[in-house]
Structures
1.
Amino acid sequence: MNFQLSDAQAMIQQTARDFSKKQVQPKAAELDESGRFPHEIVKEMAGLGFLGMMVPEQWGGAGLDTVSYVLAMEEISRGCASTGVIMSVNNSLVCDPLMKFGNDDQKKRFLTPLAQGDLLGCFCLSEPGTGSDAASQTTTAKKSDKGYVLNGTKNWITNGKEANVAIVFAMTDKAAGHKGIAAFVVDTKSAGFSVAKLEKKLGIKASSTAQIHLDNVEVPAANMLGGEKDGFKVAMTTLDGGRIGIASQALGIARAALEDAKDYAKERKTFGTPVSEKQAIQFMFADIATELEAARLLTLRAAMMKDAGAKFSREAAMAKLYASEMAMRSTVKALQIFGGYGYVTDYPAERHMRDAKITEIYEGTSEIQRIVIAQSLLKEGLSL
Ligand code: CAA
């Protein structure tokens, strides 16, 4: 496998790095403190083509590959993890299924404005009682004269407050289990679509996490994504790609923790010398850097397999599992390097640790990733 970046990929990485350093990172502490959605950054990212990175130019996107997306996601998340997830959801969980399962009419109406940043998207799968067990959801879609009528409650919806478009999963046939789920593209201004609650969170505070109520929401039949029985497949294939995005977010958070701790350790003196010269601290840096590289390789491999059109569910799960747990371990170590200063908000170490935790939970918990990996291993064997 060749991990040499092409000129185009290196250019995207550099563009994202410069933008993140100048426009995103300086605002991260304020965004965390205020919980303000970074509308101005999202607008600038749209201008750079970062909201529809893998969408073909024909549909208004940047026409780039998943590797480029991963590189940009790491840079944006290095600056601000909240901004990273806003970007990830629009690209991976909304544009991707529209690209893969949408017809030309749906692409024209939804994909193009989403890719250009004229609309923002969210992904409504989880419910108050069903997160990991996505097939057991209870939201219903009943056929009507005009199309379908949706009823139910969706939970943990990133971008839920700001989104103009929602991909909503609902049961068309409860008795059929996962084969009775359909996916719909829903205009969030539809009557009966409402934000019932905004969650107060440990981290990624500048991204909204909403509970959505669907109260007799009428959706035209032309807004069904795929067929009446295809919803679970749409959700699962979409999440495969989403997990690569979250793995990249975790890389960005861990890198932020490492770089900030490195700067601090070179300045901070104890017993007459900078703490960076103490072997105990150097070992922590060595562990964080090594694990970060390993996680990046897993993430790039999953991205390359997606670009090659290969099946990549297992590789995406491995990348997300390892990168998110690496980010948690690394941010805890980085905070320790700051000592007492790591525990207070004067430095960003505590924010990185709070932001890292969610990567082990959303788009499939670490436990779900282990299930996906183990089941694939038992069915298909090792990939050598
Ligand atoms: N791609 C395509 N099809 C898939 C698939 C995949 N990756 N995984 C499963 N399927 C198919 C199977 O082939 C099977 O199809 P058939 O019946 O036709 O054979 C069908 O789906 C059912 O498969 P399983 O029996 O394996 O399904 P399951 O009910 O046991 O669930 C699971 C499997 C992996 C646990 C799945 O439920 C899962 O991924 N759960 C986690 C959900 C999740 O990640 N939620 C996060 C929500 S998004 C979010 O976090 C919010 C946000 O805004 C960021």
2.
Amino acid sequence: MKLNIALLPGDGIGPEIIEQAKKVVLATALKFDHSIAFSEGLIGATAIDRTGSPLPDETLDLCKSSDAVLFGAIGDPKFDNDPKAKVRPEQGLLAMRKELGLYANVRPVKTFSSLIDKSPLKREIVEGADILMVRELTGGIYFGKPQGRSEDGKTAYDSCVYSSFEVERVVRLACDYAMTRRRKVTVVDKANVLATSRLWREKALEISSGFNEIKMDFMFVDNAAMQLIQNPGRFDVIVTENMFGDILSDEASVITGSLGLLPSASIGTLTSVFEPIHGSYPQAAGKNIANPLGTILSAAMMFEYAFRLDKEAETIRKAVEESVREGFVTEDLDRKNPRSTSQVGDWISDRIAR
Ligand code: IPM
Ligand code: MN
């Protein structure tokens, strides 16, 4: 296959980790006889510094004309401490989600048995947890209108808005994934308070009636926050609206103890974006110490979800698992004998080539 991949390294450690994913993608392509064309685009603080915009038009066009997008991270502390900044790196991310129609963020949350002692939870609670978080990504309170400030500046408002269509397509996607897993979908909402949540329940039930084998249940978000800590093994697929998903997917990602290893896919109507779930980790930028595995596993998700090349994805995952098992990992996973970002990238691509 001929694959056009857009690379958006972004800020902080983004460029270093994308570099490793690039090596791994090339090694995989060589092994399975695909031809790859990479093109790079600017996004985030880096893009603001060079062009004034957090998502320049050229980047958007590049993404739209690519088969998939591999994304590093965005964010820079110089903007975080300035609430009055007119343009912010995060605007680039939100604009990309909207413009590419990235309506679902999918995060597999799995434990690696050799890393379980890094989990903040007891081994017996977290062992075997295997959750697929599906977060609606282009609706809800993140994008609802009206949003703003009253004229006298004394009141501010955000609106949570969902259409049936937006709920249906993301719930359907969650059910499709569940069919390839344990066939259980938990819809997380706040239907005891919010009108949008009641629409979610209604539409989710309708969608589930089209999937005979799926068991669907409903859970209030506050309870879900507790259950994720107390009994993460009870979940298979979780589907929820944008803001609840933002919060719960971060919670879910730390319980495994392997934050640096977790990938994600943002499924789009035009193209899909693959990125690690961690941030731009500015303190580590340029030091060749950041863990590239989340990005490399995002590349595996890209092969599987965007190109339907399962064997290629499996090959990458196996090589990553091996590096973890053999302890060939960065300092976040091994303080005593750490390898550098590029050493880990080289090791994994060599392993794939062999
Ligand atoms: C994420 C991030 C973003 C979000 C921010 C940076 C706008 O936290 O991807 O989860 O809230 O969606
Ligand atoms: Mn978040």
